[in-house]
Each structure stands twice: as C-alpha cells, then as structure tokens.
Design a protein that fits this description.
Number of domains: 2
Structural class: mainly alpha
Number of strands: 2
Shape: elongated
Strand order of the largest sheet: 1-2
Length: 145
C-alpha cells in the first residue's frame, strides 16, 4: 500500500507540474504574441509617418517652386535627417499677393484721412450734438469750447 501511495503522489505531482508548466508556457506565449503585435503596430505607424512625411515634403516643395522630385528622393534616402535639411534649406513661400504690387485707389486714400468732426458729446448728459451749438438741446447745459 505504501508503494502505491507514493506512486499516486508522484503521478499527481507530475500532473500538477505539467499543468503548471502549461500555464507558464501559455502566459509566456501570450506575452510573446502581445509583444509581436506591439512591434507590428509600431512598424505600421513608422511606415505611415514616413509616407505622410514624403507626401508633405513633395507638396511643400512644389508650393515653394523647388524641385519636388529631388527633395522627395533626398528625404527617402536620408529619412528624418533629410526632412531636417529640407526644413533648413527650403525657400520662402511664394504667394500671389507678394508678386503683384499693391494698387492704392483714391477711395482708400480718402478713408485713411480723418474727416473733420461734425458732432460731439455733451459733458452733462452724454447726448450727441452738433459741433457748432453753444447749448445742449437735450439738457440745456452750456457747451464750452
């Protein structure tokens, strides 16, 4: 009987150790899967960022009348360093307004010149009155110049 009990205990021990090892393997496998999923998402994000950076450099170089294809190749080869070089060297943005001289019309000049005041405010009641009156028509206050 003693030998059978020992064998049963050993058998149960091996079963429990096997279950424990299986649990540890699943846990480790789950960690590995999570780790690789994270790595894949990081790689996808880096590729998407690189594509966005290339599109932006190409469009920005075109807007600035620079050789967009050359800058695209530079940024493809050098990556973020190429982007930094582009940001340092790029030409100022050309706008349509800065190319054409501004024309000033006579109406614009007239609006900039202050017109002579035709009204003022009464010091007593605050009503708007003509400049040439001596007495406020609202409160009867004598207006001083």
């Amino acid at each position: 009987m003693g030998i059978i009990n020992i064998k049963i205990k050993e058998y149960i021990y091996f079963i429990l150790m096997g279950v424990k090892n299986m649990i540890l393997q699943f846990r480790d496998a789950g960690f590995n899967v999570l780790f690789w999923v994270l790595i894949v998402f990081i790689i996808i994000g880096a590729v998407a960022l690189q594509i966005y950076m290339l599109i932006w450099v190409y469009k920005d170089a075109k807007k600035r009348n620079m050789d967009a294809a050359i800058w695209l190749l530079i940024v493809i080869v050098l990556g973020i360093i190429g982007l930094i070089i582009y940001l340092i060297i790029r030409e100022p943005l050309v706008t349509e307004k800065s190319e054409q001289p501004a024309e000033v019309t006579s109406t614009q000049i007239e609006t900039k010149i202050p017109k002579e005041r035709t009204t003022k405010y009464c010091a007593m009641c605050g009503e708007k009155i003509p400049v040439d009156v001596q007495i406020c028509s609202y409160c009867g206050n004598k207006i001083s110049e």
